[in-house]
Write a structure and sequence with these properties.
The protein has 251 residues and is of the alpha/beta class. It folds into 2 domains: 113 residues, Rossmann fold, CATH 3.40.50; 122 residues, Rossmann fold. Helices cover 39% and strands 18% of the residues. It has 11 helices and 9 strands. Helix 3 links the parallel strand 4 and strand 5. The mean pLDDT is 94.
Length: 251
């Protein structure tokens, strides 16, 4: 009987959402999958939501850098009775999941950077957008200032969701680190890394497990805490990181 590449490995997904597809793929490859979300997100409902949506077509571009921002934006559209056909502005997206969710809601994506990262976006987007486009960045409360500081023109920002620490996963993950060998933890955002550092690493340290990163910004956050990143695929997706782990472990 052939041994599967992830046999004996336990892989932890720490993001705010876990898809059945990811869990099934890990298990298909022989691994044990654990979902321990260290962050969760919640839509911010604000009195200015109506005005932002009413004024949206005054912009040349809407910018989304996360799936969570798309989800919150679409909830506002539905709540306030706005249809996707009424959105006449061009849309820029960072990440395949971000773009897919936009398209699923009949919001056509006109631009994506060659690498799914904000610091690449600020280099490539101005070539497409022109000199002084009017842009609305639909963001979360913990989004970094990469776009605001990196783009050669001013942008308007609309914070539509907040990222919060998920305390329910902390004790189970500490216990998992203490009791499990061959443990691999996947981080998809610096926010999840920060929660791990604040609440988990102070108990278990950084040396007992291997870390996988989706994106070089997340990898930098891990390294800033003095830890090593063992797996980081060139493509910044969950599918790619599972493939990278499988390739390395099967070598």
């Amino acid at each position: 009987m052939q041994i599967k590449p992830l046999s004996g490995k336990t892989i932890v997904v720490t993001g705010s959402a876990s898809t059945t597809t990811v869990i099934n793929e890990i298990e298909r490859l022989g691994g044990q999958a654990k979902f321990c979300p260290l962050i969760d997100t919640k839509e911010i409902i604000d009195g200015n939501d109506q005005k932002y949506l009413t004024d949206v077509n005054q912009y040349n571009w809407l910018i989304f850098t996360s799936k969570n921002a798309v989800e919150a934006f679409c909830k506002k559209m539905k709540r306030l009775g706005m249809k996707s056909s009424q959105i006449q502005v061009k849309i820029a997206a960072v990440g395949t999941k971000t773009a897919e969710l936009l398209e699923d809601n009949d919001l056509s994506v006109s631009f994506m950077p060659s690498v799914y990262s904000a610091d690449v976006f600020v280099k490539e987007f101005p070539i497409i957008a022109g000199e002084q486009p009017k842009c609305l960045f639909v963001r979360g409360n913990r989004a970094k200032d990469t776009l605001k500081n990196g783009l050669p023109f001013a942008i308007k920002e609309w914070t539509v969701y907040e990222t919060r620490e998920n305390f329910t996963s902390i004790k189970p993950l500490i216990e998992l680190v203490h009791t499990t060998t061959n443990l691999i933890i996947i981080f998809a955002s610096p926010s999840a890394v920060d929660v791990y550092a604040k609440h988990i690493a102070i108990d278990v340290g950084w040396g007992q497990v291997k870390f996988a990163s989706i994106g070089h910004i997340t990898a930098a956050a891990i390294k800033d805490y003095g830890a090593e990143v063992t797996y980081m695929p060139k493509e910044y997706t969950m599918k790619a990181v599972i493939e990278e782990i499988t390739k390395r472990e099967d070598a």
